[in-house]
Amino acid sequence: MADSLWNDMDNYLSIVVYTFFAVATLGFALRRCVQGRQAGRDAKVDQAAPIDLEAAAAPSTRFVHLDNLKVLLTIWVVVFHCIFSFGAVGSWFTMFAPERPSSFKTLGCWAIDLSDSFFMGLFFLLSAYFTPGSYEKKGWLAFLQDKFYRLGIPTLVCTTLLYPLLLFWVVVVVDQRRASAWDFWNAIKTTSFPYYFIMWFTFDLLLANCAYAAVRECGKYCIKRSRRNTVDSSSLGSKSSSGDASEMQMGCGTLSAMFIAAWLLLSGLTVALRNVQFRTFAITPVRNLPQYVAYFVFGLFSKRYRWLERMAEPGPWAKWATRIAAFASAGTLLGVYLAGYVGEPSWESHPGSTVFFPADLEVGNVNAWWFKWVVNPGLLYQLFGLSFTCVLLECAPRCLSVSNQLTQFMAAAAYTVYIIHPFVITPLFWCFKLMVGWKGADGLNMPPAYQQEYWIWLGFLFQAVVSNLIVWPLAGLLRKMPGLRTML
C-alpha cells in the first residue's frame, strides 16, 4: 500500500515538475526570440558605430585540459552504451542478452559499475566549475535564460519527440514487433512519460543551475536585509579577488579529511538509496544522486578556492595514495566479479531472467548484509570513484593540455555528441544484427551460427569504433545548421 502510494505520488510529481520545466523552457525561448529581434533592429541602427578592436582582440581564457577531459568522457559515454547493447548490464533500445555467463558480461559489468562511480559526476563537476563565472557575467535572469535555451530545449525536444520516435522505430523495424503508433504512445504515456532516457543528465543539470541561481539570489537578499556589508554576496562558488593564502588554498591534511568524509558519507547514502525510485529527478534508482550533488557543489567551490589547481600539484604522498587506492579498489572489485563469474552465476537465482548481473551476486555468502556496504555500492565502489577522480584531475593538466584544430573541434561538439549518439549506435547495432542474420525468433540471443563468444566482442568493437567515427563529424555538421549554432 505504501509503495503504491509512493509510486503514484512520484508519477504525479514528476509530471508536475516536467510541466513547469516545459512552460519555463518555452517562455525563456520566446523571450530570447523577442530579444534577438530587438537586437537585430538595434544593430541596423548602430551599424556605423566604431568597433572596439582592443576588446575584440582580447584573448579568452580556455581551460584546455578540462575541455579535453570532457571529450574523453564523452567518447566513453558512447562506448558505455555500446556495452549496454551487447547485454553486459542494464538496457538499451535494442540489445542482445544471452542467458549464459561470459567474459564480456563479467568485464562489461565491472567497467559499467566502475564508470558509474565517477564519470557522470565529473560532468556535473566540470559544468559547475564554469557556472559562477557565467552567473556573475550575465545576472540571474540572463543566466537562467541561457541554461534553459541550451539545456531545456534539447531536453524537451528529445524527451517528447525524438527519443520516443527512435524507440518506436526500434520496436517496429529492428525488433520486428507488431505495434501501432497509438498503442505505442499509450504505453509510453502510462509507463515512462516523460521519456528522459539519457537526457536525465541535462534535466538534472538544469535543476542544479536553477538551485544555484536561487541560492545566490537569496544570499544577496539576506545580505541586503541584514546590511552586513563585510560579507561578500558572491561567497558561493565565485572566485575571490582578495584574501590571504589560507583562504585560497588547503593543505594535504584538509584535503585528506574532506576525501575521507566524502567517501564515508557517499557510501552510506548510496547504499541507503540503492533501491529508491524517484522519477521526479529523472533518475531511477537515485542511488547516485548524492554523488552528482557532491560533485556539483565541489565544482562550485573549486572556482573560489582554486581546488582544481591545488589538485594538479599534489604532494607525493597524496598523489600516490590516490593512485594506489584507485587501482587497489578496481582490482578488488574485478576479483569479486570474476569470482561470481567462475562460481554460480547470479542469473540462476532469478528464474526467467535473461540478463546476467555479476554486480548483484545475489547467491551464496555474498548475499550477506555486509556485501552492499563493503563492495557495491558501498565502500569499495565509492573509494574507486573518488580516488580515480582525483587521479584524473591531477593528471589532466600535464597529460591533456594539448590544443589543435581537432581537439578544439571535438571540445565544441561534445555536448551535441552526447545528445545524438543514440541515433548512431542504435542503427549500427541493427546493421550488425542484419550482418549476422538475426531473426525475430532469436529473441535476445545471437543467431545459432554465431553463438561463440568472440562474436559478441567483435560486434561490440564494430559498434564502438564506427559509432565514434560517425557521431563526431555528424555533430559538427549539426552545429553549423541555422538555429543550432548557439544552442549546441
Characterise this structure.
By secondary structure, the chain is mostly helical. The protein has one domain. It is 69% helix and 0% strand. The protein is built from 18 helices and no strands. Helix 10 packs across helix 15. The longest helix has 44 residues, at 2-45. It is globular, with a radius of gyration of 24 Å. It starts with a helix and ends in a 9-residue tail after the last helix.
Task: Supply database-style keywords.
488 residues; 18 helices; mainly alpha; globular
Question: Any chance you could write out the topology, listing elements then pairs?
Answer:
Elements: H1 2-45, H2 53-57, H3 64-85, H4 103-116, H5 119-138, H6 140-174, H7 181-191, H8 200-226, H9 245-248, H10 252-272, H11 289-305, H12 307-311, H13 316-342, H14 369-374, H15 379-399, H16 405-420, H17 422-435, H18 453-479
Helix pairs in contact: 1-6, 3-15, 3-16, 3-17, 3-18, 4-13, 5-6, 5-8, 5-11, 6-8, 10-11, 10-15, 13-15, 16-18, 17-18
